[in-house]
Amino acid sequence: QAKNAGRNNSVIYEAGLQRLVNERLEIERGLRVALDEDQFVLYIQPQVDHMNHLTGGEILIRWLHPDKGMIPPFNFIPVAEETGLILRLGYWIIEHTFACIAQWHAEGQSVPGQISINISAWQFAQSDFTDQLHILLDEYRINPKHITLEITETALLSDIGDTKLKLALLRKTGFRISLDDFGTGYSSLAYLKDLPLDELKIDKAFVDEIRPGERQPLIESMISIGRHMNLDVLAEGVETEKQKQQLVQMGCQNFQGYLFSRPMAMSDFPEWLKAHMDMLPDPGHDYCI
Ligand code: C2E
Ligand code: MG
Ligand code: MG
Ligand code: MG
C-alpha cells in the first residue's frame, strides 16, 4: 500500500511539474508575441519626500494580455529573465519611457522629479548596456539627470570590477543610481561602500515589519548606513501614516507606497498631477522634466 501511495504521489508530482513547465512555455511564447505586438503598458508610481512633495516616480511594467487581461510583472519577469527575453523587454521599457518623457516635453507638460527605471541583472551585465542608453538618450533628447536606474543588489554582485566601472560611467553620464531591494540580497557592506551609488531603496518586506511603538533596529541601521554613505534613502511599500512617521523618525527622507498613490498608467500621470497640485514642490524648484 505504501508503495502504491508513493507511486500516486510521484504521478501527482509529475503532473504538477508538467503543468508548471507548460505554463512557463506558454508565458514564454506569449511574451514573444507581446513584444512583437506591443502588449505592454508602462505604469508609474509616485515617490515623495517627508512633506509629501513629489520627487519622482518609478516605472513598473504591466502586460495587457488580449485574453487574460492585466498580468503583473511577478508572473512574467522571472520567465523573461530565464529565457533572455528580458533583454528585448528591458530595451522596450527604456525606449518607451524615454518616448513618453519626450512627448511630455513636446506637449509642454512639466512633470517634476526623477523617473526611475528598473534594470534587470542580465540587462545590466550586457557589455553594450551603456551604449544602448546613450543611443536612446540621443534619439529622444533626454537629459540623463532626470533618470534613475534601479539596480538590485544581486545584479551588482555578479562581476565586482565590471560593476564598479559601469556604475561610475553611468553616473558620469548623469544618471542617478539606486540600489533596489536593499537588504534582501547577500551583499556585504564592505563591498557596498565602494560602489558609486546615489540612493538606497529599503525593500517593502522591511517596511511591513514596522509595528507602532516598537523600535526597529534593523531598518534603523539600514537607514543610518545609507545616510553615512551620503545616499538618499527611500522606503518602498509604505501603506500607513504610522509607518511613514516612524520611518521619518528613523531618518528616512523619501517614500513610495499606496499611502501616497497606487501605480497608474504613465499616460495618466500628467492629469493626476493636475489633480494633486498640493503635492508639487515649491515653484522654482529645479526639478521639472
Ligand atoms: P520593485 O521594483 O521592488 O517594485 C515595487 C513593487 O511594490 C511594485 O510591484 C509596486 O506596485 C509594489 N508596491 C508599491 N507600493 C506598495 C504598497 O504600498 N503596498 C503593496 N502591497 N505593494 C506596493 P509590481 O509593479 O507588481 O512589481 C513587482 C516587481 O516586478 C518589481 O519590484 C520589480 O522587481 C519587477 N518589475 C516591475 N516593473 C519592472 C520593469 O520595468 N523592469 C524590470 N526589470 N522589473 C520590473
Ligand atoms: Mg524597483
Ligand atoms: Mg524595490
Ligand atoms: Mg521590492
Question: Briefly, what is this?
Answer:
The protein is an alpha/beta fold and 289 residues long.
Key phrases:
binds ligand C2E, 289 residues, single chain, globular, 10 strands, EAL domain-containing protein, binds magnesium ion, alpha/beta, eight-stranded mixed barrel
Largest sheet: 8 strands, mixed, barrel
Q: Give me the oligomer status.
A: single chain
Rg, please? Answer: 21 Å
Give the H and E element order: HEEEHHEHHEHHEHEHHEHEEH
User: Beta fraction of the residues?
Assistant: 15-25%
What's the total helix number? Answer: 12
The spatial strand order of the largest sheet comes to 1-2-4-5-6-7-8-9
Distance between termini?
70 Å
Q: Which whole number gives the mean pLDDT?
A: 91
Structural class: alpha/beta
Give the names of the bound compounds: ligand C2E, magnesium ion
> In percent, how helical is the residue content?
40-55%
Structural shape: globular
Number of strands: 10
Q: Which spans have pLDDT < 50 for at least 5 consecutive residues?
A: none
